[in-house]
Write a structure and sequence with these properties.
8 helices; four-stranded parallel β-sheet; 202 residues; globular; alpha/beta
């Protein structure tokens, strides 16, 4: 199993645009809906390259995520109670500073970076037919229940000592419960992530 500096695979999405901007500008900026994986990945990539980062989140962002951003050296600005409030504050910052804008997902470089996980799977596994990935960005799972997700988290912890956040456990729960049934000869890989886990909820 391979992890990134931020403790999850999403760092690969962000290092590309961050590295390019490190050669041309003084700041990294990202405006997330909350300080989750993408914000942490951007901040970690910036820290690795010696580039300052500023992350804008609503006041409603979970404290554990805001704290994680601070630990990797990001300046965290909390504005308003909704995404649009933090987004507008960030747009003002970008206009005034010329900082790089890094979206959580809606950006060509970020989307291209997501695909590199396929290359890593090829390196680590001797062939794979299907990759199960939990959908993030606030999308609600329709394949598995909250109870099944909780059971998947408990199973992976008790049997493998793997800590998963709720959203990331959905993909494994789909396999565990039969929501996704592979063929008898199908090799399935499941992408796991625990970076957004709140220790208080374990």
């Amino acid at each position: 199993m391979r992890t990134s500096l931020a403790g999850h695979p999403r760092l690969r999405l962000n290092a590309g645009p961050t590295r390019r901007h490190a050669l041309t500008g003084p700041n990294l900026w990202w405006s997330p809906t909350w300080g989750g994986n993408a914000g942490l990945a951007n901040a970690s990539a910036a820290a690795a390259l010696g580039v300052p980062s500023t992350v804008f989140v609503p006041l409603t962002a979970p404290a554990v995520k805001v704290a994680a951003l601070g630990k990797v050296g990001a300046a965290v600005v909390q504005e308003g109670t909704e995404y649009v409030d933090a987004y507008q504050r960030a747009m003002d910052f970008v206009a005034a500073s010329g900082a790089l804008y890094c979206h959580a997902y809606d950006q060509p470089e970020i989307a291209a970076g997501a695909g590199t996980i396929g290359l890593e799977l090829e390196e680590q596994l001797d062939g794979v037919d299907t990759v199960l990935v939990a959908v993030g960005g606030g999308v609600k799972s329709v394949l598995v229940s909250n109870e099944q997700i909780a059971a998947a988290r408990i199973f992976l912890w008790e049997n493998y000592r793997i800590v998963l956040e709720n959203g990331a456990a959905a993909a494994y729960a789909a396999l565990q419960t039969g929501a996704y049934v592979p063929r008898s000869d199908e090799r399935v890989a499941v992408i796991l992530c625990g970076a957004n886990t709140d220790p208080a909820g374990l």
